[in-house]
Amino acid sequence: MLQILLGAISLGLLWAVMTIGVYITYRILDIADLSVEGSIAMGAAIAAQLIYNGVNPFAASLAAFLGGMVAGLVTGLLHTRLKIPALLSGILTMIALYSINLRIMGKANLSLLRMDTVYTKFEELGLSHTNAVILFGLLCVLGVVGILYWFFGTEIGCAIRATGNNSQMARAQGINTNNMIILGLVISNGLVAFSGSLIAQSQSFADVQMGIGSIVIGLASVIIGEVLFGKRNFFNRLLSLVMGAVTYRIIIALVLKLGMPANDLKLFTAITVAVALSLPVFRSYLRPIKKSMRGESADAVDQRNL
């Protein structure tokens, strides 16, 4: 059982980087960016191909990050310059990246067995593969959270947040909202691709279809993190995303342990996200019931007093 939990934590930390990327577009920019399903596979493909050809795994991971930034740039240009709706822009980029990823890898999947990865240095210190992934993943997550907390406190970062919060007011303050949207998409997809490179090195292979359903996983992690761990301030929100990603992976591991078929995981994730996103509606339905119950109890007290 402990090994299952450690495996879930290690995978959750790697997916946490992707979750933060999804949060930037979904919460900060208020854009549903589906290009992440292609960029996460792109990051895995770039890193795997470079490592396979003898490139340093850290350099390969950096190249994956840069590749994801290019994917985000394309989505941003389609949306802001060509005036294509954000949702459709992401879909177009996602479709294009499928073919591009096949071109990068040369085939549908690429194995990294018995090759050095970013975790090899930690494994040489005597750590198991799972512990090495946890340690390196934790370092990456803390680094990403720290950098983003600093960045979104700068003038440019605040401009991105203002663009997502109220674009008309942001333009009235002289902010070029189109550039801010592009920059947000670039950062988001860069983080998603970086996460893909770490996941590929952890599981020792990259697959062209590994991004399918990743947007739902990211949304599930965002919602779980916000509901369970709160969103009092920006730093707390970033940490809640990490905890949400880890919690989601633990839930999946426990559900599988209880005997749920692996083929039903996508359905379970979709239902989880739908329920989480519908919580405000459920609360609005329950609020009048609670008020009426309180009113009835008050009336009952008055009757007893009479």
Explain what the structure shows:
With 306 residues, the protein is mostly helical. The protein has 2 domains: 2-260, ABC transporter involved in vitamin B12 uptake, BtuC; 262-306. 78% of the residues lie in helices and 2% in strands. It is built from 13 helices and 2 strands. It has helices at 2-28, 36-52, 57-80, 86-105, 120-123, 129-151, 155-165, 167-172, 177-203, 214-229, 234-257, 265-277, 279-305; strands spanning 109-111, 205-207. It has a two-stranded antiparallel sheet with strand order 1-2. Helix 10 (214-229) crosses helix 12. The longest helix is centred in the N-terminal third of the chain and has 27 residues, at 2-28. It is globular, with a radius of gyration of 22 Å.
What value does the Rg take, in angstroms?
A: 22 Å
Could you say which structural class the secondary elements and strand pairing correspond to?
mainly alpha
H/E order of the elements?
Answer: HHHHEHHHHHEHHHH
Ranges where pLDDT stays below 50 over 5 or more residues in a row are none
CATH class of the largest domain: Mainly Alpha
Averaged pLDDT: 89
Total count of domains: 2
Helical amount among residues, as a percent range?
A: over 70%
CATH topology of the largest domain: ABC transporter involved in vitamin B12 uptake, BtuC
If strands are numbered along the chain, what order do they take across the biggest sheet? 1-2
> What overall geometry do the principal axes of the alpha carbons give?
globular
Give the termini distance in whole angstroms. Answer: 60 Å
Q: How many DSSP H or I helices?
A: 13
Largest sheet: 2 strands, antiparallel
Give the beta-strand count. 2
- So what's the oligomer here? single chain
Q: Could you tell me the strand content as a percent range?
A: under 5%
The CATH architecture category of the largest domain equals Orthogonal Bundle
